[in-house]
Amino acid sequence: MENTPGQRHLVMGNEAISRGILEAGVQVAAAYPGTPSSEIIEVLSQVAARRHMYTEWSVNEKVALEVAAAASFAGLRAVAVMKQVGMNVAADFLLHVALRGIRGGLVLISCEDPGGLSSTNEGESRPYAKMMEFPLLEPGDFQEAKDMTRWAFDLSERLGSIVMVRSVTRLSHASGNVTFGQLPEDRPTADFNFNGAMLDPDTGPMINLPGPVTIIHRRQQEKMARAAALFETSPFNRYDGPERPELLVITASACQLYCREAIEILGLEQRVGLLKLGTTWPLPIQLLQRHLALCRRILVVEEVLPFLEENLQAFAARAAARIGIKQFFGKNDGALPSTGELNPDLVMAALSRILDIAPMGRDDAYRRRAEAIFAKGAPPRELTFCPGCPHRASFWGIHNALAMDNRRGFVSGDIGCYSLAALPCGFESLKTLHAMGSGLGMASGFGKLSPFGFDQPVIAVCGDSTFYHAVMPALVNAIHNDANVTLVVLDNSGTAMTGFQAHPGLAVNALGETVPTVEIPDLCRAMGAKVRVCDPFDLPVTQNTLLEMLDDPQGVNVLVLRQICALSPEKKGKKRYDMAVDPQICRADDCGCNRFCTRIFRCPGLGYDPQKGTARIDEVICAGCGVCADICPSGAIERKQRS
Fold first, then answer.
1. pTM score, two decimals?
2. pLDDT at 359
3. Which of 79, 231, 272, 548 is the most buried (most CB within 10 A)?
């Protein structure tokens, strides 16, 4: 991220967004990590010292937005970054800051995940822009990701409003060529003015009060009207195609790349017009009116829900007297699927149906070759925990404790790597799995159902980063309401699922500085919970501790299972044990265990050697945790301590 204006670089979409943030002269950046957004703060933190910038991994997305807003109120440019589910966490404060306004440019970047490639949902955050009344921008390629992000701060200050920039996985995590611009060298001074009149946006206190709320709301809507006027001439909105197209395709974000490719492959450049919008809320009314008047049929291409489509339909209905009656195609009529990612093939299929042309297919020879290749294929491979993952050992202990307790107990889950415990690799332990913090919140509810005949023990699980993010309020609730529940904190010393970003339990922050730690056991004890700390690799102790907690009829127990992630930078490649299988003892199918280690425990470091008829250790991927030696019923797996 050197100051090399005019030079062209191959960068990831998130790196392009980071470059736009730097070119805008942003001083404060805050986020909670979440794929596909995490790289933005990671890039910024690497250059923060050189760029006189502050970056942080905040405890959750709401706090990240509040940290960024504080900088804005003090006259600095600031950005908050999150993935789509984080928007729901930030929504409470977002409503307030959108209404009251900002001072220094304030941009919210939401990186969404159509298709749920790395998420448990493919939620939409675009409706927040309409519901809470602030501008929404959607870059359509890598150059725009940089340029539009930079422009978003100018727009924010011009309007006095927060601005949202929306990316998607295929933009955030793909790469393309980007021409860099100039990095500013000025260093603004932070100063929060608050002695002016109550409603003065520049010098008054930044407060929302019931009395003048309609005045502030009217001011907010005036900002949106100004934004719509600015969007009429935005260079991020552009049209390509004939003067009088048979079909007008309107699209935004990475979908414009799919549309361009589909039109070109089908040879429809002289029949189909493509209107690519970068400013998708508020809509540029005059621009749309000009283009909609040219064509009767409209195809709207977007991911995932018909947000743009329905807004365009509403506008077309209001403008029907001027532009005529239009026929819309898209999500609502089934021309395009309303779930999952789009691609050029799906767009080509929609274009072919609408224009009544033969769909482009593969010739028979190609189809036969493809079928032959796929018939051989790669062996099926299920989702699983990594070799040496402490979560496998944790859920083995939890699974066995619940089985020995024998009261139909279950686990209420949470979001993280350990969500895989709903699958065989985690012994199908999780029976509820929703939002971050919901595991304990729901367990707290289950724990108050005894007056209604409920007698099943409940274990809630969460990760260490999730504990700080959203579990603490649920823990307070469970303790205050005397819910009978056990919380297991799977502490693997980092936000492992998204790249080992720092959290309050570690002694380092996003800038690499040494900071105070906030210990999970101390917090839980201070709240009034009964707390134990164990190593999940010590299976007998973990199991017995859980049994004692399940047998406790009163209050909240917390078990912190502490073992660093096998893939963490501190531990990766460092084995505690050398593992081996004694072929004289292991008989696999014939020893009575029915290949227990590979059929049930399922660590990828364990395999089956059909020639020898024994289990084997994959030395390449085995992490040397030693747990498999404890689970082998015949004692055939041996471990030797490394010096």
1. 0.90
2. 78
3. 79
